[in-house]
Structure formats: structure tokens, C-alpha cells
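Thread: "does anyone have the structure for this chain?"

Original post by V.I.:
We have the sequence but no experimental structure in hand. Need at least a predicted one for the grant figures.
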Amino acid sequence: MTYGQHSLQEIIDWLAELRAGQIDLTEDNMGLANAAMMIIERQPATPPPPLPADQLSPHFSIEELTHSDTALALGIDNTPSAEDLERLEQLALITLEGIRSICGDEPMTITSGYRCAELNAAVGGVSDSAHLYGCAADFVIPSVGDPTEIVARLKPHLIELQIDQLIDESNSSGDRWVHVGRAIPPNTQPRYQCFAV
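Reply from O.Q.:
Generated one for you, C-alpha cells below.
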């Protein structure tokens, strides 16, 4: 592997000469060379520990993306299937973690995630809702702004976040949130839609 016009070994040799003082540079530059050598010589970084079993990604848990007050009140079992859980993991790892990063790593409040068919009907969800497949979440980030501001911030990132639909949503009670959805089966290609309802 080369870096610019030089091989890694050439770079290491040059840095070693700098560190040994064989190249006449200022003390500050030799300090930088020492730091560079320490980075190159150290053992490869250990991978991060595996996530706990109840986590889908570093910041999002299974509980967070399946919890529903309505399901609890009505005694509905909102446990996702293995396939839905896999899609929830992709939603968390790629889309939600990406949104959190773009929004300054501010905590997100998930107001709705996965919904089984019974729960989706109970809350008045549309029959082909992405929530049914583990492909959608509704959220707010009060420290970043209202849903309109958040949607505007995320709109340039639809492709990288693999967003099928990004929606500034509200209800008749005046509650507002951001809906983010990935492509639902059998589709795999996002439509990259962004709008308000």
C-alpha cells in the first residue's frame, strides 16, 4: 500500500530518522514524529465490545423501539419476529444512529417504533405502514428543534441514511414528530421522499 508517492515502509523509515534526530528539524517536529511513530507501532486497536443482547445499536435498545403504552394498556404482545428484529437493527444501526450523529449526538425520544398488526390497527396506522415491518420510527429531538427544523437538517442526507420516507407529522391534538422509514419488503430500494403531513 502506498501513501501519496511513498510506501508505508518509507514513511516509517523517515519518521524513525526524525525521531532519532538524524534529520535536522525543530523540537516540535520531532515531537510530532514521536507521536506518529507511537500510532504506527502500537498494536491494532481492539474491537469494541459486543453490544448487550437488549441493544440494537449503541444508542437504541429493543425495548425502546418496541415499547407502546397502547400495547400495554390493551394487553397486546408487540414482540417482533426474527425478520422484523433484523430490520429494526438496520433501522437503528444505519438510519437512527446516522440521524443522531447529524443532530449533534443529542438524545432522541422514540415515540413509536415497531408495531405488530394488532397494535397498528389499534393506533390507526395505515395498512402498509413501515412500522409493521420494523422499518420505521417516530421521534423527537427537543434539544435540536421542532420536527420542521429536524426534517430540514436531515433532508440532504436521505441517501446516506437509506431513508425511504422522512415526514414532518402531526395529529389533531397538535402533537408533532418526525417519521423516518426505510423501504419495506419486498422493496429494497428507498424512494428518498421528504414531506409534511
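V.I.: this helps a lot. The radius of gyration is 24 Å.
O.Q.: and Residues 2-41 form one domain.
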